[in-house]
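Continuing the batch. This is chain 6 of the set; chains 1 through 5 are on the previous pages. Same settings as before, nothing changed between runs. Recording input and output for traceability.
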Amino acid sequence: MIPYCEKISGKLCFLRPMDRTDVFKWTTWFNDKDVLKYSVHRTNQTDESKQSTYFEENNKSSTKIQFAVCSSNGILIGIISIQFQDERLKAGDISIIIGEKDYWGKGIATDAIHTIVEYAKTYYNTTLFTAGCDVRNKGSEKSFLKSGFKKKSILRNVISYPDEKKKYDLVKLELKT
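Output for chain 6:
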């Protein structure tokens, strides 16, 4: 789904529709083991062709919207998306990756989450947002909590990574508006 706007300003960052020129940087992040440390995608090597295909599929989707997260001076630093439960767009799951490590721990993810929630409430009347993260990913959990999400539950031993035998707990977060 292509967003209804060209730019949505937050306090620390802005969101804009993804475009084809973002694919190179996006591919770099998805091949960085530190960026994907807590992602099930961390062992999947990707290339620009695969990411371009994924980009096109996202734009055609009627239930997923994705934005580039940019620093206040316009540098592409991450990606945020909402995967809606269905075409009514009333509930959706948010995922975010801040790929530029120099921006970690600076409140960018919190601002991007808040900004996309406000966008979805305004344009789609979305009333329920969910998210989840590996219990060890304290930065992600903190960003969602600071954005108004509440910890709903911890699901024990449900996250498995292809390169590890151990399973990890999943923190489920929720925001009702």
